[in-house]
Specification:
GO terms for molecular function: pseudouridine synthase activity; RNA binding. Belongs to the pseudouridine synthase RsuA family. It comes from Micromonas pusilla. Keywords: Isomerase, RNA-binding. The longest helix is centred in the middle third of the chain and has 8 residues, at about 130-140. The radius of gyration is 22 Å and the shape is elongated. The chain has 3 domains: about 10-65, Roll (Structural Genomics Hypothetical 15.5 Kd Protein In mrcA-pckA Intergenic Region, Chain A); about 75-140 and about 230-250, Alpha-Beta Plaits, CATH 3.30.70.580; about 145-225, Alpha-Beta Plaits. It has 7 helices and 14 strands. With about 250 residues, the chain is an alpha+beta fold. The chain has helices at about 15-25, 30-35, 105, 130-140, 160-165, 205-210, 245-250; strands at about 15, 40-45, 45, 55, 60-65, 75-80, 115, 125-130, 145-155, 185, 195-200, 215-225, 230, 240.
């Protein structure tokens, strides 16, 4: 169970049991009759008799395999992305962040998608959701959601780099529009180390911005996304947890 974060009201509208089971990743619609026949879907402890019966997903009396339906309002998950995995559903690209999710989440419909992407070698905070509207809201440059990265480069950042990053005039090669103003905080003791805060997500943006001032990124880690960070038990790569609506709206 658990409260979802989605903007959709699907969970409070009546829907067929077979559609619900498929939407939440329990089984294909074609298998729903078997699930219902086996008594796996109950209302107040009594088996639901038909796969085409209408139920309301967030009705507290409804159980699937003895538990409340799994995040019927949609899921927003926070992952500590390890190095070496890609943000892609294409198996040809190698091991994927989706391989780290619970099996049932992979069968949800609509499917789970990353909120933006992190490169294969980039680590840190990655969000995933099955709610397309929420995904758009979190990635739209209009919303200016800040994302902070810890970056290490192969040469000292030049003294004027923070001013250039903040100018709103830095245009990356192949781009028509300049980058929105970004914050670069260089570590005074180790000038190859910095944090970068962006409010947009162009392709390989941090790497390309650093290259524009003569620095090649050697490691990149996303520390925060909006008000969310990798605090507490999330310090270990590969960890995943569900984000609550309250956290999202902070």
């Amino acid at each position: 169970g658990g409260s979802g974060v989605g903007a959709s009201s699907t969970a409070s509208s009546p829907e067929r049991v077979d559609r619900l089971l498929s939407r939440l990743g329990y089984c294909a619609r074609s298998e729903a009759k078997r699930w219902v026949g086996a008594g796996r879907v109950t209302m107040e402890g009594e088996p639901v008799k038909r796969a085409d019966a209408k139920v309301v997903a967030n009705d507290p009396r409804l159980s699937i395999d003895g538990e409340a339906p799994d995040h019927p309002d949609g899921i927003l998950a926070l992952m500590h992305k390890p190095a070496g995995v890609v943000c892609s559903h294409d198996p040809r690209e190698g091991p994927s962040v989706y391989d780290l999710l619970p099996a049932r989440w992979l069968k949800r419909n609509p499917r789970m998608e990353t909120v933006g992407r992190l490169d294969k070698d980039t680590t840190g905070l990655l969000l995933l959701t099955d709610d397309g509207l929420l995904n758009h809201r979190l990635t739209s440059p209009k919303k200016r959601v800040p994302k902070t990265y810890e970056v290490r480069v192969d040469a000292d950042f030049p003294p004027d780099a923070p001013t250039l990053f903040a100018s709103g005039t830095l245009t990356l090669s192949g781009e028509a529009k300049p980058c929105l103003p970004a914050t670069l905080r260089v570590d005074e003791a180790v000038r190859t180390k910095a944090t970068v805060t962006l409010v947009e997500g162009k392709y390989h943006q941090v790497r390309r911005m650093c290259e524009s001032v003569g620095c090649v990124v050697t490691s990149l880690h996303r520390r925060s996304f909006g008000g969310m960070t990798l605090g507490g038990e999330m310090g270990e790569p590969g960890r995943i947890r569900v984000v609550t609506r309250e956290e999202l709206e902070r």
